[in-house]
């Protein structure tokens, strides 16, 4: 089992060794002690409501590393009186699963239900995931799976339909600061850092609580003549740590300024804020991640090459490192700042996701269903499908929407950049569809 921050951990209520890692000694003993996930563990959160009702359904905990997935699972078992069993999909196979289910059945006969925690559940293949279904359905186990990957892509639809997906948030500055406060209280001394360096340490954790406490433990293990400033901290940890201003918001202020300068098509200001971050010691890969996100969110199909430029910059930086590779980051930044802008893809994504949630599991129309077997052909799968390449202009105007769901409009291209040509094509297609409907 892994603790709040990942890695091996004992069962709930186990006492950590006084000589154990700091993260183990700080492991929460109650759900109320879990930081950064109040939207789930609070009284109005999904987990808080389950515990208050004394009934726990199967759930999938989806979130980044070091955010508390495993700890929450262990504490949930304790809170609702379930036997706790933890396995990892990385190290477990069919034989171990059979043993777990057999033991769970034995305990169920004596009135003790089992919470089965499966770490990295997305690593089980589709057949193995299907193997959970009968034991979840008959109540042999209450399944709590943990994953860092999107469950929509990595887990079977049948398994997802039997479990509620709960999203854990990356630990923010306030949550990470509380972890450091607890560490200092346990050790009974303050970290040997200036306020600016303390903030830099928090920001460098990138939302990972265990990483932060491991860094803190390293600092507690060494004596210093004076508190470390950000530069000294970076040198000691052999990790680039950004310099942050005294109001403790420098990291977030600078990345916000960079993003909005890019969106506002000001390459000079964007380059200034990029320089501010890299000169201060910000991780270049963090900046590249933000540029790549920007390329999809704020440029999209107005200039599809923006995403290519950002990914190429990432490859170039991986190959060259600092400082040579930072020129590729500058190139990507300037490309994004000077590219035509469109958030049409971003808006379309949100609208499509919302519609998918609202409409459930509607079947596609039969004419576009695959029919690999004789039976499927006999019941109408694929009947009447129009092969677009054989149609005039390579466009049939066929219907692709589920029965009962009228055509939706999610993506509306702008008149900027490449999207202007896309809009013209889409308008032509819409006209052809209307002609077909009127015929």
- Class inferred from helices and paired strands: alpha/beta
- Low-confidence runs: 1-10, 244-248
Order of helices and strands: HHHEHEHEHEHHEHHHHHHHHHHHH
Number of helices: 20
Q: Report how far the terminal alpha carbons are from each other.
A: 64 Å
Work out the oligomeric state of the chains in this entry: single chain
General form:
flat
Rg from alpha-carbon coordinates: 26 Å
- Main pleated-sheet profile: 5 strands, parallel
Mean pLDDT: 87
Q: Count the beta strands.
A: 5
Strand order of the largest sheet: 2-3-4-1-5
Helix content: 40-55%
Query: Beta-sheet strand percentage?
Result: 5-15%
Brief synopsis:
This protein is of the alpha/beta class and 439 residues long. It has helices at residues 22-25, 38-41, 46-53, 69-80, 94-109, 126-137, 151-154, 157-161, 173-187, 195-204, 209-220, 230-237, 250-263, 267-280, 284-299, 305-320, 326-338, 344-359, 374-378, 418-438; strands at 59-62, 83-88, 114-119, 141-147, 164-167. Strands 2-3-4-1-5 form a five-stranded parallel beta sheet, with helices on both faces.
């Amino acid at each position: 089992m892994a603790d709040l921050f990942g890695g091996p951990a004992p069962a709930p209520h186990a006492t950590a060794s006084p000589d154990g890692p700091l993260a183990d000694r700080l492991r929460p003993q109650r759900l109320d002690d879990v930081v950064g996930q109040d939207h789930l563990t609070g009284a109005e959160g999904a987990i808080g409501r389950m515990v208050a009702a004394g009934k726990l359904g199967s759930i999938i905990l989806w979130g980044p590393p070091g955010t508390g997935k495993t700890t929450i699972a262990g504490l949930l078992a304790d809170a609702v009186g379930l036997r706790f069993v933890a396995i990892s999909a990385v190290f477990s196979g069919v034989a171990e699963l059979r043993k777990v289910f057999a033991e769970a059945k034995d305990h169920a006969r004596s009135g003790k239900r089992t919470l089965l925690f499966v770490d990295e559940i997305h690593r089980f293949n589709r057949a193995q995931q299907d193997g959970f279904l009968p034991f979840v359905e008959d109540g042999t186990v209450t399944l709590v799976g943990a994953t860092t990957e999107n469950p929509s892509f990595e887990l079977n639809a049948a398994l997802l339909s039997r479990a509620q997906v709960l999203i854990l948030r990356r630990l923010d500055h306030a949550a990470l600061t509380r972890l450091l406060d607890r560490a200092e209280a346990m050790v009974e001394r303050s970290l040997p850092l200036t306020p600016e360096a303390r903030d830099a340490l928090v920001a460098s954790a990138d939302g990972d609580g265990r990483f932060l406490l491991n860094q803190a433990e390293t600092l507690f293990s060494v004596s210093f003549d004076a508190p470390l400033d950000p530069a000294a901290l970076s040198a000691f940890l052999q990790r680039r740590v950004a310099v942050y201003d005294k109001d403790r918001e420098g990291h977030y202020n600078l990345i916000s300024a960079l993003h909005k300068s890019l969106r506002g098509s000001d390459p000079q200001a964007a380059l200034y804020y990029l320089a501010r971050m890299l000169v201060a010691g910000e991780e270049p890969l963090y900046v590249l991640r933000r540029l790549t996100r920007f390329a999809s969110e704020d440029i999209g199909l107005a200039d599809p090459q923006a995403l290519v430029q950002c990914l190429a910059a990432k490859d170039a930086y991986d190959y060259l490192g600092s400082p040579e590779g930072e020129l590729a980051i500058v190139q990507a930044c300037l490309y994004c700042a000077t590219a035509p802008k469109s958030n049409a893809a971003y808006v379309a994504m949100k609208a499509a996701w919302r519609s998918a949630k609202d409409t459930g599991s509607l079947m596609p129309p039969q004419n576009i269903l695959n029919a690999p077997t004789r039976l499927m052909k006999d019941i109408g799968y694929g009947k009447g499908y129009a092969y677009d390449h054989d149609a005039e202009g390579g466009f049939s105007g066929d219907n692709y929407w589920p029965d009962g769901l009228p055509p939706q409009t999610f993506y509306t291209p702008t008149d900027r950049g490449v999207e202007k040509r896309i809009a013209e094509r889409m308008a032509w297609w819409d006209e052809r569809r209307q002609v077909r409907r009127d015929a």
